[in-house]
Amino acid sequence: MTLELSIIQQTLALAFEQAETEGASQIHLLKIRISKEADLNIRPLQSAFEMFTRGTIAEGAHLEIETVSVIYHCALCDWDFYSINEEDKCPLCGKVSQQVVSGKEIELVSLEVS
Ligand SMILES: [Zn+2]
Fold this sequence. Notes:
- By secondary structure, the chain is an alpha+beta fold.
- The chain has helices at residues 2-21, 42-53; strands spanning 27-35, 62-68, 71-74, 79-82, 99-101, 106-113.
- Helix 1 (2-21) crosses helix 2 (42-53).
- The N and C termini lie far apart (31 Å).
- Zinc ion binds next to loops.
C-alpha cells in the first residue's frame, strides 16, 4: 500500500497546513476526491489515514472519499475539473469540455475543523 501511504501523507500535509492557517486545534472531517484511473483501494487509504492521524490534531477524524471518473480541462477558463456522473460541462462557464486530463490522483475537497 505504498501509493496509498504517500497519497494520505500528501493529503494530510495539505490538511494540517490549512488547519494551521485557520487556527484550528482539531480536524473533524476530511473530504477527498480520488480518480478512478488512479486505481486506489479505499480500505488501505482508510487504514493509512488512521495510522498517520494517530497523535495528531486529526486523530479520530472522519475520512470521506469520493471517487470520480474523469478529469476535464476547460481551455476557456484554464480550469481542471472532475467529472461527476460523466458530466463534462465546465462548472465555471458551463461549456462542454472535450479535453481530458489525467494524472491528478487526489484532491482535498473540504476540511471541517474547530
Ligand atoms: Zn470554462
